[in-house]
Amino acid sequence: MRLRTVGASGLKVSAIGLGSLTWGGQTDAREARSMVRRFVDAGGNLVDTAPAYGGGFAEQLIGKLIHTDISRDDLVIATKAGFVVEGKKRVVDTSRTALLRDLEGSLRRLHTDHVDLWQVHAWGDAPVEETCAALDHAVHSGMARYVGVSNFVGWQAATAATWQRTTGTRTPLVSNQVEYSLLARRAEIEVVPSAQYHGMGLLAWSSLGRGVLAGRYRNGTPKDSRGGSDRLSWFVQPYLTPKSQAVVNAISKAADGLGATAAQMALAWVRDAPVVSSALVGPRTTTQLEELLGVDDVVLPPEITSALDDITGGPNLARSEES
Fold it and tell me: 55: left (phi > 0), else alpha (psi -120 to 50), else beta?
């Protein structure tokens, strides 16, 4: 699998990243372990996690794996801070205290002295200078190698990135992790231009449109899917619409012509989009992962890329600027 630098930094990550949102829920330890091993065998290195994933289970499992199954050096571990789930309530706290507390907890669960990429999980109410000071501290203390943000809209990412570069002595932000797929192209409006200007790479979460673009929902909602889960049905529901179904049908038709699957087509489109450093996927099984790893052999002809652009919102202006 090809490696890419994240933005203008020296951090190198695989073009496809492995997300761990479902670990501890729909994906048990045995299956997650199998996926990580297969992912690394295929040349992947970026594993994205967070304290909120499985209530810390995902980080704990990664911590075990780097001491039993794979070398710590084989992984680029990206985790987050500033967001927790308390009961059914989602709490965002980006104060210095909360962020560093989260990071210390992550390091304990991961059984490592540093993470490769530490991200603020969401924009919060704390002053941006306080949030950014925590990022600086994490790097200067050796707890994190690089820092970035997650789910920041364009102006938020630009504000944080500008603050970090004001004195020339602070740690620059290298990435913004946001939702981006053929069903969610909002990032192209402000996030992508912001990332381009500030030398940040895009980490695209839910590259398969929360799983819908894989085509599993064409004939209803499978009971073993995220959409059929009590815990994650809310996550998938916004994309179970006639419009989304039309996009899936178009992708499937194009995929047939290229000898690929709908999931591979959708993933290749994100992987090859401007500014994207890594397209994150969250397979629940090794079988699903195996299909997605096959995207390495998929090359989208320009006319197919343009057609997919057209049916999902129009031309990608950043792509036009590159050509």
Answer: left
Angle at 216 between CA 46 and CA 90, to 5 degrees: 55
| Cα–Cα distance measured from residue 187 to residue 135, given in angstroms and rounded to the nearest whole number | 24
CB neighbour list of residue 194: distance below 8 Å, 6 or more residues apart: 154, 155, 157, 158, 161, 176, 200
Residue that is written with structure tokens 């992962």 in the block: 289
For 286, list phi and psi in degrees, rounded to 5: -65, -35
The answer to whether the beta carbons of residues 236 and 212 sit under 8 Å apart is yes
Lookup: tokens for 162: 């500008």
Position 61, amino acid: L
Rg (CA), the chain: 19
Domains along the chain with CATH numbers = 1-311 (3.20.20.100)
Q: pTM (2 decimals)?
A: 0.95
As a whole number of Å, the end-to-end CA separation of the chain is: 25
β 89-92/12-14 pair status: unpaired
- DSSP-derived letter for residue 233 is H
Q: Is 19 helix (H, G, I), strand (E, B) or coil?
A: strand
Q: Which of 5-9, 43-47, 148-152, 216-220 has the lowest mean pLDDT?
A: 216-220
> Which three-class secondary structure state does DSSP give residue 118?
strand
Name the phi and psi angles at 174, rounded to 5.
-105, -15
Tokens of 7: 């933005």
Strands (E), 73-114: 76-81, 83-86, 89-92
| Distance, CA of 132 to CA of 8 (rounded, Å) | 19
User: Nearest CA to 119 among 223, 43, 17, 242?
Assistant: 17
Residues in the chain, overall count: 323
What's the pLDDT tens digit per position in 81-96? 999 887 778 899 999 9
